[in-house]
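We emphasize that the prediction below concerns an isolated chain of 217 residues; any contacts that depend on oligomerization or on bound cofactors are therefore not represented. The input was used exactly as deposited, without trimming of termini.
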Amino acid sequence: MILSVARTMLAERDYNTVSVAEIAAECGIVEGSIYRFFKSKRDLMLRVAEDWMEQEYRIGTSYAHMKGTRERIYYLIHSALRTTYEFPGLSRFLLTEVRPDPNYRKMRIYELNRTYTSAIQEVCREAIASGEFHDSISTRLIRSVVFGAMEHETWGHLRGEGQLVITDVARELTDLIYEGLRNRNARPDNTMSLPERIERIEIRLSSMEAILSPQRD
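Result of the prediction step, given as a token string:
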């Protein structure tokens, strides 16, 4: 009950405007009862954010059936933008209170975020391996470009300074990534025999493995 009420309040409001006393009153309990479960307001809200991210940032089952690289990239970008748009208070809390924390990389919420953002890298690795994308840019940098751009585009909305058109941003960012990485010199896969395609994929996978194995991000 405490988590549910705290999440409802943080979904739209700023972290600093929500108090433990207010949460307790909404739950119909005394404020001290909350501290039996959580050390502080920050501890409570961090748990709220972890549960929220685990629920909202999971990759849906429809994603598994998508075959096209462009479609998969669009899905991941659109899903992340939609979540930020629909839960501005929680998104602000992550950006302003959690991410600057010196212990952020040791938190569970960091691993949850990393799991989602790594999906973009995986799509690009597969496209590089198949020859659909060229391999001159690291997938780590691609991930940074995607999520850095999304953060920049959504910040105005989170500050209450304007509306965000999710579909437009998702489409434009997808086009930017896809067209920027598309290998225009590659022969289309449907003109190659199956053994040729398998051999090309194996060669690219071996090359990528050699590069990535010393230090995987």
